[in-house]
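Side project, low priority. Logging it here so it doesn't get lost.
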Amino acid sequence: MKKYLIFFFAALTSTSSNSQGFQVTLKAPGYTSGIAYLTYYMGSNFNIADSAAIGINGTAIFKDSTKLAPGIYAIFFPGKQLRTEFLIGEEQTISVTADTTDLVNKTVVTGSKENILYDQYQKIAASKGRQMQQERQAYAASVTKADSALHEKNYNVLLKELNDYRDGIIKNQSKSMMAALLNAMKEPPYPTKVPVTRQDSIDNYNEYKRHYWDGISFMDDRIVRTPFFPKKVERYYRDVIPPSADSIIKDVDYKLLLARSAPEMYKFLLNWLTDEFISPKYMGQDAVFVHLFEKYHSKGLSKWLNEKQMEAISRRAYMLMANLVGEKAADLEMLNTEDKPTSLYKLDADYTVIIFWDPNCGHCKEEVPRLDSIYRASWKNHNVKIFAVLTPDGKQSVKPEWLTFIKEKNISDWTHVHKTQKMEDDDFAAQRPGFRQLYDINMTPTVYLLDKEKRIIGKKLSLLQLNDLLEVKWSAGPSN
């Protein structure tokens, strides 16, 4: 398989917000040298916000003239094996005194009221966690039903106490960062209705989806820098919301509208969504990326991106605009094997398969005969026609190999077309998009499926996917 382009976009997220400055002082008596790192959560990863050398007195100072975005931060000690976590909110002159023999119980954070509640929560959660682990182990080692029942009961009591403690913070300290974090951690309630009919299952799904974001505000910057929220976003768009582009577009527009008053949340969501749908999981979802480009990026609503990133996004969007599923395919006016003008739109068929291929491509040499075999055995009887586009790698002519391959493999029943180098050069000079841009050709073979009206109903398909899609279309009735 020949690959012409591998596209990758890495979304950047700035570590700073308002220009008022921060200073975090680390006091770690156990160290007299080395580099410590101030980091923040972004999903399961830690991103570096700053670094500082530890002096002989065990002190390191992280500081800058711009404020840090609120969230959970961690200082990694030299060697990066140990870390201590704390919250950064509005108060950003903070001192962290750490005893590495017991970071949970002997670390003291001053200068931030948010960390008093966070410290209390960490200690209680750690204590309850240890007790619950002991009950799990005891349950696993139980030899009687009575023992099993006892340890299960004890475990559930501890779990309820921990959940009640969390709910108490959410209720009584609702404006605190700790409450925001606990809301981000909470799982949506699973429907208790036992599904009997298909409608019951649909109702359960809708109930789960309706409550998925309960307690989370998209106008709150603080939850972006946590290990919980990015994972929750990922699961929602990959597993919860229907995969159709229209559903996703409606949803993301609403969330981005809410986030416009929270710059870090807005930035995170737009970056994450762009990165997710630039190379989507499901066919047709690239329409989401094109929508994000047209409505946000091209309107200057992602000013944090540099020129190189914007150029990459723009280039990718323009490669996809002309080949979205559901839209009419661009016409291809080319030359046939006898160098006579031939047009895609003059091909009269209920379904048209377009294949972009190269006779020198190893994968093409395998797939093209297979495609012809199933075409002759089945598709041809359903008025499917194949429009095969020569897609050479580079400017060197491969026309002789192309004609030889067609003859040797006896695939003359297809409509074979090509463009001369002069035709391609003329397109470039006239700033007309070539077939590679119009159909996003970055590897061979690339296969599209069009309906009777030349609308795209499938693209970048394998032979098996193509056959399955045609079978579904035939079972549903004539092409519309």
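Brief comment: Residues 118-185 form one domain.
Revisit when time allows.
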